[in-house]
């Protein structure tokens, strides 16, 4: 009998396996949000929101990433989970696995990145731990709070809702592809190249936008885009108690021209970079058509599709042809 390895499952299936095994364990506790972007602890009129994420140097950071950028991202990935739930951050903790040969100035740069990100998101660094490890490992945890009526859930999408996203898609993917490529100088002007590299090396969580969305009460479901647009849309579908699907329109996807230029240069498909690679940290949400204008009065976003009852994710291409998209996304877990 061949025994399955955890790498055969992948990150998302492994998390689902954990959730399935702890449901009975949590039956005597006031915990909600299992399977969502963060756990919710019932505190009466509000929830305490908690999340954690682990980053490894060899799996999550391109070789060109600086120590400061590593520290920054360790905060951002956790704050993005709070943003996906509409929660205001209260504190951040980080435990670090550090190689013995790491120089003190390199550690100071890593810590500096963490503190700069904490200042950016206005969240205090309140604790953590350090241990020796073969490579840099950053296990961050963020705690936040939200009123019960302002939680952003994955599960609320309704047939006829429109699908929105807060920003452009594929920039981080294009930047990471450049960093991993050995093809030399890319055909993009320096100022445009920085627009591509910043999302790859120093991503920003959409915290401000999430708090506006949460307080607006105009959105039915939401999450953040970390593992790719299609993967996160599938999360919204699976979270719904009803049978829903998503129809996307290729011509409406906010994939900028810089991504298309880089994709051509690297012989990549720009659509693949925009909908499958992930690391965008944009907010993805569904809302009734009549709520689009009121929400646009508060923030900018793109409408990219609609909620259906097909149970699948469809794409209408630029020629008007419809096809079903396979569900896949960026898996961090390596075999």
Automatic annotation (TrEMBL):
Positions contributing to substrate binding: 60, 279, 330
Broad class of enzyme this protein falls into: transferase
Domain of life: Archaea
EC number of this enzyme: 2.7.4.16
Residues covered by the PurM-like C-terminal domain: 158-316
Residues annotated as domain PurM-like N-terminal: 35-145
Keyword terms of this UniProt record: ATP-binding, Kinase, Magnesium, Metal-binding, Nucleotide-binding, Thiamine biosynthesis, Transferase
SUPFAM superfamilies, sorted: PurM C-terminal domain-like (SSF56042), PurM N-terminal domain-like (SSF55326)
Positions bound to Mg(2+) 5: 227
Family stated for the protein in its record: Belongs to the thiamine-monophosphate kinase family.
PANTHER family in alphabetical order: THIAMINE-MONOPHOSPHATE KINASE (PTHR30270)
Entry function: Catalyzes the ATP-dependent phosphorylation of thiamine-monophosphate (TMP) to form thiamine-pyrophosphate (TPP), the active form of vitamin B1.
Protein name per the record: Thiamine-monophosphate kinase
